[in-house]
Structure formats: C-alpha cells, structure tokens
C-alpha cells in the first residue's frame, strides 16, 4: 500500500508521470489528470480540499526509470534515497523541492531548502509525504471547519445585503448617484490638472501672432489689388 502511494496517482491510480503535483495532505497526482478533473469539476469528496490548481504544488523532483516497467521512482537529490512509501520524504511548499526528511534533518538548516537554497517561510510549508490516515483526517476536518466558517460569513453578508435592499429600496439608486457624482468629480479634477499643465500664453507671445496676422492680411490685400490692376 505504501509503495503504491509512491508510484501511483492518488486520484486516478494511474502510474505517476511528470509533471507531478502534491497536495497539503502529502498525496501525489499526475498534473494532467488534476487539471482535467478540475476543468470537468470531477473531484471526489475525499479530495475536496483541492478546488483550484493553486491548492496543489508542482513537485521539483529527481526521478529514475523503474527497472521492469515504465514507471518512475522518485529519489532524494541529496541522499539518493528512494521514495518508496517507507522512507520519509517532505516537500518544501515554497519552492516545490522534494527531498528525504533524513537529509533535511542531517543538514540542520530549517530556514532554507537544502536542494535549491530558497527560503522556507514557515514550518507549516514543510509538508510530509508520509502522513498517516489520522493526520490526513485531521487535516480534512480542519479544512471543513474553515470552509464552514467561510460559507457562514458569505451567507451572512448576502443576507445583510438583501435586508438593506428590502428596508431601503432606493439604496441601489443612491449608490448609482454617488458613483455618478464621484465620476464627475474625477473628470473635473483631471480637467483642472490639464489646464494647470498648459501654461498661459503671455500678452507678448499672443501679440506676435496678432501682428503676423495683420501683416499677412495687408500683404494679401495688396496682392489682390495688383492682380486686378489697382495700385
């Protein structure tokens, strides 16, 4: 059973193949299968903690081909220990690196990933791949409780909104009017900024164009007179 967990996709029971993703219960999945099921909304209740792709982490792993078939075997990149369901392994959630717990413990560096050097934000991000059924059940119970609280908050917010609308039918219109006023105020502010950005032309500057216009006007009149034979 333990070896099967290390070799098979937890949700489809197919042989693991890269890319592999891991959930916070320490279960391994074929990424392609997980994406397909999320799109089809075909996630069994036992995996209800996975609602989107961000709920799993793509594993950065070292693998070798298993002799005798086309399955893959995960190995620790530090100790070369094989992940067979008996040796304890972990995944650093921040970077996705999968290593043996023994290698992590021997190097005694709990602040950085010993495989890639990325900082481990908290010990909660160090997920065991060898969780017991009791540990996984406790995780699901905690998840269900958090989900219940979130659902209650959402329902309460929706009920308050309906009650407000029922008690004050014009509330939506008032909100719309406020949005219109805010929009007008923003546009006026932009217009004022634009006017400030364009410098006022001085009288001397304006007179240049006025003088040039008068000269052009006189020259044009003289040309018309010459053309008609008037001097």
TrEMBL record:
GO terms for biological process: DNA replication termination; transmembrane transport. Residues 180-204 have a biased composition (Basic and acidic residues). Residues 152-205 are annotated as: Disordered. It comes from Stylonychia lemnae. It comes from the Eukaryota. The keyword Signal applies. Belongs to the rtf2 family. Belongs to the bacterial solute-binding protein 1 family. This is Rtf2 domain containing protein. The lineage of its organism: Eukaryota, Sar, Alveolata, Ciliophora, Intramacronucleata. InterPro entries: Rtf2, Rtf2_RING-finger, SBP_1_CS. The keyword Signal applies. Residues 170-179 have a biased composition (Acidic residues). Residues 156-165 have a biased composition (Basic residues). GO terms for cellular component: nucleus. Keywords: Signal, Transport.
């Amino acid at each position: 059973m333990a070896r099967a967990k290390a070799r098979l996709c937890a949700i489809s029971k197919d042989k693991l193949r890269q890319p592999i993703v891991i959930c916070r219960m320490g279960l391994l999945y074929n990424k392609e299968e997980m994406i397909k099921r999320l799109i089809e909304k075909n996630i069994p209740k036992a995996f209800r903690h996975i609602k989107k792709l961000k709920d799993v982490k793509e594993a950065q792993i070292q693998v070798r081909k298993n002799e005798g078939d086309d399955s893959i075997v995960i190995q620790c990149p530090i100790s070369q220990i094989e992940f067979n369901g008996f040796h304890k392994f972990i995944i650093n959630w921040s970077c996705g690196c999968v290593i043996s717990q023994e290698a992590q413990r021997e190097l005694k560096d709990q602040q950085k990933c010993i495989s890639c050097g990325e900082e481990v934000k908290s010990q909660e991000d160090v997920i065991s791949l060898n969780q017991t059924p009791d540990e996984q059940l406790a995780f699901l119970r905690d998840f269900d409780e958090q989900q219940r609280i979130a659902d209650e908050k959402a329902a309460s917010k929706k009920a308050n909104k309906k009650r407000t609308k029922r008690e004050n039918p014009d509330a939506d219109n008032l909100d719309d009017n406020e949005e219109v006023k805010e929009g007008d105020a923003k546009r006026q502010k932009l217009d004022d900024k634009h006017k400030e950005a364009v410098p006022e032309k001085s009288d001397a500057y304006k007179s240049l164009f006025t003088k040039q216009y008068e000269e052009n006007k006189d020259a044009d009149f003289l040309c018309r007179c010459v053309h008609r034979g008037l001097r």
